[in-house]
Amino acid sequence: MAGLLARTGFRLGKRPSLLVCSVRGEKYMADPLEHATGIERKELEAIKKGNPDPFMMRVMKRGPGTKDQPTAVPSFQESRIVGCICHEEAFYVNWMWLYKGEPKRCECGYWFKLTEAQDPFK
């Protein structure tokens, strides 16, 4: 659609209306938070409050990973699938299921344990 508007503007010998609208009269797009609804709005509000990863989707760094101090993996469920990149040069990910209350050892020797997650939207 934007490409069509731009081509039409160039054919008429004018600047594309798409560009004119963005600079005319000091008017800019409103804050995305004003337009967002539903889960997108919750995500933007959590980011604004200082939580950059409200859905816990970022890669976690491994902790000490010993049997006494396993790497804590937060979860809202009783189980969660976890991927471990055992070596920096590895071209694959070792996937395993974790269950609450049961620490589990990866093939590389690191230990993981499922913990109760905090509500990211509070």
In terms of topology, how is this protein built?
Elements: H1 2-11, H2 17-23, H3 32-35, H4 38-48, E1 71-75, E2 79-84, E3 94-99, E4 104-105, E5 111-116
Parallel strand pairs: 1-5
Antiparallel strand pairs: 2-3, 4-5
Uncertain segments: 14-22
First-residue to last-residue Cα separation: 39 Å
Name the CATH architecture of the largest domain. Sandwich
User: How much of the sequence is in beta strands?
Assistant: 15-25%
SS content category: alpha+beta
* Order of strands in the sheet with most strands: 1-5-4
GO molecular function, one term: metal ion binding
Region (Disordered): 53-72
Binding site for Zn(2+): 84, 86, 106, 108
Keywords: Metal-binding, Zinc
Quick synopsis:
By secondary structure, this protein is an alpha+beta fold.
Describe the structure.
- By secondary structure, the chain is an alpha+beta fold.
- It has 2 domains: 25-55, no CATH class; 59-121, Sandwich (Cytochrome C Oxidase, Chain F), CATH 2.60.11.10.
- Helix content is 26%, strand content 20%.
- The protein has 4 helices and 5 strands, in the order ααααβββββ.
- The protein has helices at residues 2-11, 17-23, 32-35, 38-48, and strands at 71-75, 79-84, 94-99, 104-105, 111-116.
- The chain has a 3-stranded mixed β-sheet, with no helix packed on it.
- The longest helix is centred in the middle third of the chain and has 11 residues, at 38-48.
- The two termini are 39 Å apart.
- Mean pLDDT is 81; it is low at 14-22.
